[in-house]
């Protein structure tokens, strides 16, 4: 017999929405609309305005645990491959990514930027003879992108490594890392995935045992065959082209996860090494899940004179931040390559979600800076 009840934390009598409503799948909601008791359809904004309530839904709570798992598995794999975790500044003197918007702030009378990536500093770690490094940290992009896959702040999974003979060494390391993530999510986090897939349907990512690497000419041939006008073949891919490419790769090679190598130089950042055989192209690559990009990387240009020339050609001023970056190469540095991965985008695409905001605990976009 219950004789006494204590309230540990009293909730309001009327909440913005019920957790059970937040936990229903779109299919359940749709099917209820023609009944005498239709379930309420909760929009994205009311969910995000009260995100702590939304995260009480079992699937949404489990998504955060999968996000944590991806970080854990990323660390496990890279530690096993001889990497060292580093922590780089997020207040920096200038832009670290050409072509990406930057947030600025006053820094004791000087203008500082919120880091768009740890790019310059992970390369300077290679200059410091720390031959394999990684970082998990915040990334800031002042881009007015209101798409379902862009955020103004996200968590970057970054790595950089010295190479001995060819930058393909880095693609092999990254492939091993992603295999470790994909395999272990399905086994060690099966309970969380079951909770998520009850509300958000998806299938496990299919991947190959060895890296599936396409080169730019093959991608152009595939896309022309799919009816796209690729012009001079030196422009970036659109979202529709990436999805079409992913569909053909899945059919032809039987994988959801693949790498595209040899991007045109003009659409890549200044620190990218040009292809020595044809400098219209570069030693750079993107990686995709289900036809959408999750990772961008390249062999870096470690020749200070060539970096300076590329900066000049791209019309980028060499400020204080870039001066020290280039100086680190003048003191000697191993050839190196690396990659930058968006944590929330990996989670969102792995789980087949319809919006990256579902994979972010408290997302930041051009219209949202709270809660």
Q: What would you say this structure looks like, in words?
A:
- It is a single chain.
- The protein is α+β, with helices and mostly antiparallel strands and 371 residues long.
- It contains 13 helices and eleven strands.
- It has helices spanning 19-22, 26-32, 44-49, 51-54, 58-80, 119-127, 168-188, 190-199, 216-225, 239-253, 304-313, 320-330, 343-350; strands at residues 84-85, 91-92, 104-107, 110-114, 132-140, 153-162, 213-215, 257-261, 284-289, 292-299, 336-342.
- An eight-stranded mixed sheet has the order 1-5-6-11-10-9-8-7, sandwiched between helices. Strands 2-4-3 form a three-stranded antiparallel sheet, with no helix packed on it.
- The longest helix is centred in the N-terminal third of the chain and has 23 residues, at 58-80.
- The protein is globular, with a radius of gyration of 23 Å.
N-C termini distance: 42 Å
Determine the structural class based on helices, strands and strand pairing: alpha+beta
The order of strands across the largest sheet is 1-5-6-11-10-9-8-7
SSE order: HHHHHEEEEHEEHHEHHEEEHHEH
Question: Key terms for this structure?
Answer:
371 residues; alpha+beta; eight-stranded mixed β-sheet; three-stranded antiparallel β-sheet; 13 helices; 37% helix
Describe the secondary structure blueprint for this structure.
Elements: H1 19-22, H2 26-32, H3 44-49, H4 51-54, H5 58-80, E1 84-85, E2 91-92, E3 104-107, E4 110-114, H6 119-127, E5 132-140, E6 153-162, H7 168-188, H8 190-199, E7 213-215, H9 216-225, H10 239-253, E8 257-261, E9 284-289, E10 292-299, H11 304-313, H12 320-330, E11 336-342, H13 343-350
Parallel strand pairs: 1-5, 7-8
Antiparallel strand pairs: 2-4, 3-4, 5-6, 6-11, 8-9, 9-10, 10-11
Helix pairs in contact: 5-7, 5-8, 5-13, 6-12
């Amino acid at each position: 017999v219950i004789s006494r009840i204590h309230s540990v934390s009293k909730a309001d009598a009327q909440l913005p929405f019920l957790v059970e409503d937040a936990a229903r799948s779109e299919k359940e909601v749709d099917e209820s609309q023609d009944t005498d008791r239709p379930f309420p359809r909760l929009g994205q904004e009311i969910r995000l305005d009260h995100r702590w309530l939304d995260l009480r839904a079992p699937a949404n709570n489990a998504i955060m645990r999968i996000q944590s798992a991806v970080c854990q598995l990323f660390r496990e794999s890279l530690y096993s491959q001889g990497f060292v975790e580093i922590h780089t500044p997020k207040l920096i003197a200038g832009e670290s990514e050409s072509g990406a918007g930057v947030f600025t702030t006053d820094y004791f009378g000087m203008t500082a930027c919120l880091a768009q990536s740890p790019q310059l500093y992970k390369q300077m770690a290679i200059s410091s003879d720390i031959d394999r490094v990684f970082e998990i940290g915040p990334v800031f992009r002042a881009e007015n992108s209101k798409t379902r896959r862009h955020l103004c702040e996200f968590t970057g999974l970054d790595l950089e490594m010295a190479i001995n003979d060819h930058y393909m060494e880095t693609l092999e390391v990254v492939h091993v890392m992603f295999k470790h993530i994909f395999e272990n999510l399905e086994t060690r986090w099966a309970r969380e995935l079951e909770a998520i897939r009850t509300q958000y349907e998806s299938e496990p990512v299919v991947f190959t045992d060895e890296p599936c690497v396409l080169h730019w000419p093959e991608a152009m041939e595939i896309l022309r065959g799919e009816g796209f006008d690729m012009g001079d073949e030196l422009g970036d891919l659109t979202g529709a082209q990436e999805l079409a490419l992913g569909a053909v790769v899945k059919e032809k090679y039987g994988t959801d996860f693949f790498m595209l190598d040899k991007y045109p130089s003009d659409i890549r950042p200044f620190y990218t090494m040009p292809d020595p055989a044809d400098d219209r192209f570069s030693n750079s690559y993107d990686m995709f899940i289900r036809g959408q990009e999750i990772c961008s990387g390249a062999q870096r240009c470690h020749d200070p004179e060539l970096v300076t020339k590329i900066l000049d050609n791209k019309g980028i001023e060499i400020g204080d931040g870039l001066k020290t970056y280039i100086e680190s190469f003048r003191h000697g540095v191993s050839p190196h390559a690396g990659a930058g991965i968006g944590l929330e985008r990996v989670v969102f695409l792995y789980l087949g979600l319809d919006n990256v905001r579902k994979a972010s605990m408290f997302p930041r976009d051009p219209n949202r800076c709270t809660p």
